[in-house]
Amino acid sequence: MKKIVNHLKNSNHIIIASHANPDGDAIGSVIAMGLALDVLNKNTTLYNESPIPSAYSFLPSVERIERQIKETNIYDTAIILDCADFQRIGKVSPVISQIPVIINIDHHITNTGFGNINLIDTSACATAEIIYNLLIEMALPINNIAIATSIYTGILTDTGSFRFSNTNKSAFAICEKMVEAGVDPYNVAQHVYGRYSLGRIKLLNMALESIEISNNGKMSMMTLTKSMLDETGTQPEDIDGLINYAKSIENVKVAVLIHELSNGKGISVKPNHYHVSLRSNGTVDVAAIAGSFGGGGHNKAAGFSIESTLSNIKTQMLNIAVEL
Ligand code: 5GP
Ligand code: MN
Known about the structure:
Layout: H1 2-9, E1 13-18, H2 24-39, E2 43-47, E3 65-66, E4 77-81, H3 93-96, E5 101-106, E6 117-120, H4 127-137, H5 145-158, H6 169-180, H7 185-194, H8 198-209, E7 212-213, E8 219-224, H9 226-232, H10 243-247, E9 254-260, E10 273-280, H11 286-291, E11 296-297, E12 301-307, H12 310-322
Parallel strand pairs: 1-2, 1-4, 2-3, 4-5, 5-6, 8-9
Antiparallel strand pairs: 7-8, 9-10, 10-12, 11-12
Helix pairs in contact: 2-4, 2-5, 4-5, 5-6, 8-9
Bound molecules: guanosine-5'-monophosphate and manganese (II) ion (MN).
């Protein structure tokens, strides 16, 4: 951590990026880090490849997150947040890799240590927890309401509202401090969980209809195609959280959600290109399963992308189910 503090003090232009299809932790961490560096009068660019899900559009300074990057030769440092591997940034990862110093801050167990400086804490409930600790170490303000809201939202969402197994003592301790700094938990919850479009509810219906259970009952599988998104007028962000229904089924050890990737306009990125999300009840290490397909994540929540047919993916998953 000291190394990062010293390096950032001497940096001038810093790009802060997180993974494509960002969640609350990725977005909250990027904003908190960016706003904190403002205090040090650093030039910063906040970057994410994907549109920001509407649930997070209330976050302060969210409009500063750009989807294009300027020439990389203006940056001396890149801070990569919540990315288990470098490619998770998305299509600009080869461009960002040319920046002289890459700082990798993350909490995923499968993190590849791709940075010149790495700050990986797998016991942290969220990357936002590590950012909080970093800001304390740098004596930067965490009682600023904008920074506090971003950190609070990162921890709230990555712990599934303090329900998931990564929920630790710090989750409560930090969130308490953020509330003391002025964060209104009800207001954040209303934005993040309070409102669903009718389309999302219809998508939920389709997701529930799609559930298949392996013969031994230990694996549940949900499937979402781009035509389902088109029919309900929903976006990939609306898929977030649906897998928890498959996970909560009695006796299920591993839940799988297969979703067809599209560019948001209903057109496939590539034909037969899917993202597979995996969740476990704690008895199976799904990061290892995702890893065997080139992905990664946490023991209980992981994922990977694959080019294959739907039936092929299902067969491969059901072969894993037999061993559970
Ligand atoms: P989900 O698959 O539900 O989007 O993500 C679950 C967890 O797995 C997250 O912590 C996410 O960062 C990780 N994850 C998802 N897809 C990938 C992937 O393709 N590669 C890696 N390394 N991690 C992934
Ligand atoms: Mn995270």
